[in-house]
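Batch 3, record 17
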Amino acid sequence: MDGRKSVSESSLNVAQPVLQARDVSVQFGGVQALSDVSVSVRAGEICGLIGPNGAGKSTFLNAVTRLASYGTGTIMLDGTPIEGAKVRDMIGLGVARTFQNLGIYASMTVLENVMLGGHHQFGGRFAQTIFNPMSSGARERAARVKAMTVLEEMGMADVANTIAGALPYPLQKRMEIARALAAEPKILLLDEPAGGLTHGEVHEFGELVDKVRRSRNLSILLIEHHMGLVMGLCDRIFVFHLGRNLAEGKPEEIKSNEAVISAYLGRAA
Amino acid sequence: MSDGSRSRLVKFGLFAAAAVLLPLLLPGYALQQVCIAIAYAIAIMGLNLLMGFGGQICLAQGALFGVGAYVTAILNSDYGIHPIATLPMSATATALVGLVVGLPALRLQGLQLAIVTFGIAAAFPQLLLKMGGITGGVSGLPIDGLEAPTWVPVSPELWLYVVSQCCAGIAALLVTLMLFGDVGRALRAQRDNAQIAEALGVNLTKTRLWAFAGSSALAGLGGGVFAIITGFISPESFLAILSINIVIGSIVGGVTSVVGAFLGGLFMVFVPTWASDINLSLGNLIYGLALILIMMVARNGVTGFIEKWLSTILRRTADNTASVKETREELT
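Prediction for the assembled complex:
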């Protein structure tokens, strides 16, 4: 616990956040999904993003990965705005994510799924597969070694050749995180990664995320409903409510924040 | 895993045995029919890459097959290039045409794409007639007959068979290379879920166009082989229905199988003939019923059906040996 604190405190001095979103608004048709929300995540920091259903948490992740386009505001990665980037560029810029309702390929093996995480580094060389099979073979081996390393770190090496669809749900979620890690991101966006886990599993999962973060000095933005996990794991927490910033601060501050408590209990804030 | 590789081995063993035995058993005419089936099989392999692995529907494969055939015929009859030497050019030229055909796929998917590509297939024969100056119009184009080199003492039919099998082998190799590693994975990923693939950095535009180009190259190669085998082509060989028949051949054989492509080609050539042989006036009825029956019995194509059947047998023998071992252990 102490070690983690020192990581976050030392990173407080870093001037530039890895991810900085300022006054971001997203509209779907006539619905205002996000209005002027601001979020920043520093290097090596785990930030929680919480809020009642419909608060716009997933929409915010979609905005950061360009799956949803935002009308106003800016999102910057390491100080560079992402407005000009396409959806497919984001992973190469260092943003990897998981999806709320699983974004895995059920008919592929676990290893293949995780190797897809390395696509932006190893892949996309179409002509090479035909005209230089030796070199694409070498790339394939390199990608496999890397994916296996991540799978070992996540404790999933023994299921590498299993078809992903045959795994139990919590392992599928973990595999999706492994795939995101295989992309070697600067920031990892996790959308309800602990969904479907039992109480004991949640605790173990929290330790795993913390270990992964430390070994890579990774920034993480975590959407999660499991309060125990969020409070125990996160350095800072952002609270959204009805598409707006409601509160921001350290876990203990959030716990005692009147506005947050009333939003969660459904009273008028 | 070992079960899968064993059944694959058995499948390829059967296939190789059939490929060697066919010319020994069949009379000359039937062997030429088999060669035509192989030419179709090459086009089907391309479609399997595009449709089976890429999830893109293309109802213009017959037209692209025709493009390849005409490139071979024109290069041979107008420029005197040896028929076999024209084949790489047919494949390349058709790949370029395929890139253009694939452009609508960047905006349209599924049924809309099917209609657009079928439009190309429907327009193609007429286009050939209108361009009579280079395509020979109704009277078509002849292609030089192939003669076996003097050091290969085989009949012309057998030589044609060897040549078409070699081309099919090259086509199978190309498909295997194109499905290898990251590129194949990206292709399947965009088929199963395009949005997630994009979030993983897959360039959908490039991937789809590449699949169209690869598929079309094989259609062109198949068309070139077809022109060499028949020795004469005219617009009549490339009517719109050919594109539909290639799709049928692909699905009947099994959309993700190389061996299935051969079975699909054989189906395209022989089943309609057999159906009319049974009863001339009911040929189409029997053919149609055969199609329906196959899809009822073998939803994943004939190879899917055989694979399931083989793996059941293999598992049963494995269970038997295991139970024999168990009883032995119990006895001792």
